[in-house]
What does this fold into?
Amino acid sequence: MRITSLAENTSTSPEILSEHGLSLFIETEKMNILFDMGQTDIFHQNAEKLGIDLSSADIAILSHGHYDHGGGISKFLALNEKASIYANRRVFERYYHGCDKYIGLDPSLKECGRFVFTDDTVSICDGITLYSCNERVRSHELGSFGLTVLEDGIFFPDRFLHEQYLLIEENGRRILISGCSHKGILNITEWFYPDVLIGGFHFSGLSLDSTLERYAEILSTYDTDFYTCHCTGTDQYEFMKKHMTRLRYLTGGQSIEI
It folds into this structure.
């Protein structure tokens, strides 16, 4: 399996563009998957520079309903005429930061005819499954990070019911892909016990203190290789790396073989 970061907050070189967003191109034995589409069309520009043909994606997956993961949907639809986009059925609800900044998706895209809307668990094919985990116990409650959802004119803390995770089981290994891990990276790791976990940890707003150290120490107890990115924060990554020998950073333009 080969995973390439097409869009991320950082990049391997000046030629590879960066933005606050995430997009990963995943080449498995069974299919090619585009996981998230960043904030703009940078994922496409970088794909061209890296020699990746996005029309070869068999499916696309949207991890959750925020602009920095689904801002490039329109571009992808124009580039690829066949691939369905798998997204949780709540993905087009009205998501905000606080009560004024809209951070959701373009609602006009909902009726494009290319979405497959999911609930808790969807098997795409043998060994490739999507999970929302909305009914699972959250042992570690981290709050809503100031993110909200607008329902019937009232703002509520976002419980991230629109978020989903991709589990790929290949060659005896369990590889889990998460966009922002809003439900808690500690919870997600506990739910799946993956061999490899790739995604943002949503720690960029945390101080470099004993709380973050404790999180890192808990994650280090798992027999898991972690590749983090995007909303983890580079300072937070460097801090956690001191306590997690199996933590690496996946930057824009970088590919890893699993």
Helices lie at 42-49, 67-70, 73-79, 185-192, 210-219, 234-241.
